[in-house]
Amino acid sequence: MLLADKTLFITGGSAGIGRATALAAARQGADIAIHYLGHDEGAHSAVAEIEQIGRRAIAIEGDVSDPASARRFVEEGTAALGALDIFVNNAGICPFHAFLDMPGEVFERTMNVNLHGAFYMVQAAANQMVRQGKGGAIVAVSSISALVGGEYQSHYTPTKAGVHSLMQSAAIALGRHGIRCNSVMPGTILTDINKEDLADAAKRQYMEGRIPLGRLGEPDDLAGPIIFLASDLARYVTGASLLVDGGMFVNLQ
User: Fold this and answer.
1) Which UniProt keyword terms apply here (predicted)?
2) Is residue 2 part of a domain?
3) Does position 199 have pLDDT exceeding 80, yes or no?
4) Which of these is catalytic: 143, 145, 183, 241?
5) Is-catalytic flag, 65?
6) Is the residue at 253 inside a domain?
7) Which residue of the set 36, 65, 160, 183 is catalytic?
């Protein structure tokens, strides 16, 4: 029970990595607040599963790119669960698109959700942790794309590099308050964000061939590393990033 009697707030918690992390954290003893947009069925079924595990849960809808939504998530989640101990910034989008004809609205929306949303959410969560006065842990889901480029991700990769950098700066700003800030960098994970891209059998086979462990990642593969960084096992880890990619990044041949 690595997170016994803790409260964990997570954005993008209705599906994919967020949902898997929320359920895994509940199994480790945490109560869960889920932030989501539009996926009512996934959010409410996740709450039901968490309650079946024996933990408390709440789902709050909103758009992470709206600063008011971040404040409301923290306020309503804290009112329901009593405290905010762990914050996981997970929400993100990646509408694949070529660079030369990238519409401005696609670039702006990706930036607003992935980077601006991370800033607003982390800031709101950190202020709540400071008010509580007992420290906390913040984990952001960055990406291997923070370290490498992608032909159809010229709008996405800068946001994930920014999320990684945000955690480094936040670690410095919040260390005096006992708040640790780290990031995970997933490789290619089978989620809705890349379902269409990986529907191409040849593309999927190529991606699998790049990975030393021989398979694409599953959402559950991220849950363990996130819980580790959120737990007291990582009590002296802050400003760090953890690649969770099956070895893809180091495979240059």
Assistant:
1) Oxidoreductase
2) no
3) no
4) 143
5) no
6) no
7) 160
